[in-house]
Design goal:
338 residues; alpha+beta; 4-stranded mixed sheet; 9 strands; 41% helix; 14% strand; globular
Length: 338
Amino acid sequence: MLFSTTILNWFHENGRALPWRETNDPYAIWLSEVILQQTRIDQGRPYWERFIHRWPSVNHLAAATEDEVLREWQGLGYYSRARHLHQAAKQIVELGGFPTTIAGLRTLKGVGDYTAAAIGSIAYGLPVAVVDGNVYRVLARYFGISTPINSTEGKKEFAALAQDLLPTGMANNDTLSSLYNQAMMDFGAIQCTPSNPLCIQCPLAESCTALRLGKVGELPVKQKTLKIKERRLSYIYIRYKGETAIRRRPRGDIWQGLYEPWLTETVPADAKLIRQGIKHVLTHRVLYADFWLWEPEVRPLLPDGLFWIREEDINQYAVPRLVEILLEVLPFNLLNPE
């Protein structure tokens, strides 16, 4: 089909050179796909490189502790990805290696249809189309599809269309399905971008429905289903003779398994306000955090869940990005001591 051939030709000239594309190792490919969910390549690539260096195989990753994985993940956000990554690594070791079928890959923790298709096609050459945000956007614009991409009908429609467009056969030593899937990811990320797409230089411009009808900015369509909630937080950084107190966040809330200072609604009378109303935006909510410094003269009894650590050891604990920001505004530098 003209569409698929054009996409492949474009990829040959414009595809991004990425280290996980230089191998068919399913571990390296899986790791890149998990890291790059909700993450730009320029932000995610250093994390991928650090993970590969520290844990060069899935067996090494499975042998790590959850705390170690979360600490290495710090700054990427969406920490459930890191926990699922670690759990899936253990699954893979128990299985004796990576599953080689889409159904098998789907059994791994945190692996959905898109990730399974990406690993399956790139690592094993399986003829399965990937469908992610880039693919939705390119297909919706080119074919003029207004079905909401987050509706049940839309997911089925786009998945079927993507599969119909998937080429088969070989090119050099790669399957065309693998190359095409990577091409669609790059085409959406570089050419057919969410805003300011490069329509004038697009090789599909003459046959693009959205461009012809002036609807590039309207497609793809997405149903608005998300309610944004606001939440206020007050953190107390306790400082007593070179020690501070932190706790590990429990299950069932944001940042599960990460560490934070004392989170309370009752601020000690002699605590000092360091920063107020720091705004932190998450997918489902907006947080506003106040940060206090409390330097008591007598060692206080800690609320349940908090424990003492040496201030200089705080870098050994994985903290949410918001807490990292708060620690940076302290009148002394804990994160990057000289």
